[in-house]
Write a structure and sequence with these properties.
Helix content: 55-70%
Number of helices: 9
Radius of gyration: 22 Å
Number of domains: 2
Structural class: mainly alpha
CATH topology of the largest domain: 434 Repressor (Amino-terminal Domain)
Shape: extended
Distance between the termini: 41 Å
Largest sheet: none
Number of strands: 0
CATH architecture of the largest domain: Orthogonal Bundle
Length: 185
């Protein structure tokens, strides 16, 4: 995987040109992030997700490839250097198309139902505080509520949580698509 060495400085330049703090920029993105995430991206400690990259480009009204260009590429407009990096995103574009196809197979009501079912299942995996028949939480000798581990510790929680997060992402995307369709109409 190619490292992106120019994203951080480009992000910082655009942010400063807009007169925004890192926290302000983070709050204004379609998928809000905290100021520390913006700081880490600018210092190239880590890089944004594909969704955040698209959101940043949209916010600054630039092409995503412009966020990845060197100064020379920006000044000269060398599209071949930019096009070389597009290959990194082709698998992600294929994933997006696959998700869009899958989403067309589900109605909003079905997605809501699946989300509710997964949410109920997730409750079984969380630690809980036992309560007596009056609904009063059990406490230890110091009066602090007792928290017990889930009795389903051996079930693959991470995989279930991942499916839950993916469904939430699909719901959010479908909601944005519906909003976009309403705006177009």
């Amino acid at each position: 995987m190619t490292k992106v060495h120019y994203f951080g400085p480009n992000l910082k330049r655009l942010r400063l040109q807009s007169g925004l703090s890192q926290a302000e920029l983070g709050e204004r993105l379609d998928t809000p992030v905290n100021g520390q995430a913006i700081s880490n991206w600018e210092r190239e400690i880590n890089h944004p997700t594909y969704e955040n990259l698209i959101g940043i480009a949209k916010f600054f009204n630039v092409m995503p490839s412009e966020l990845l260009r060197t100064e020379k590429e920006t000044a000269v407009g060398e599209t071949t250097a930019v096009l070389d990096r597009i290959d990194e995103y082709m698998p992600k574009v294929a994933d997006i198309r696959r998700v869009m196809h899958m989403m067309s197979d589900f109605s909003p009501r079905q997605l809501d139902g699946l989300s509710e079912q997964l949410n109920e299942i997730m409750q079984y995996f969380k630690p809980y505080t036992p309560v007596d028949e009056d609904g009063v939480p059990e406490t230890d000798q110091n009066g602090r509520p007792i928290t017990k581990q889930s009795k389903y510790q051996d079930i693959p929680i991470k995989e279930v949580h991942q499916v839950y997060q993916e469904l939430k992402t699909i719901e959010a995307y479908q909601g944005r698509q519906q909003d976009n369709n309403l705006q177009i109409d």
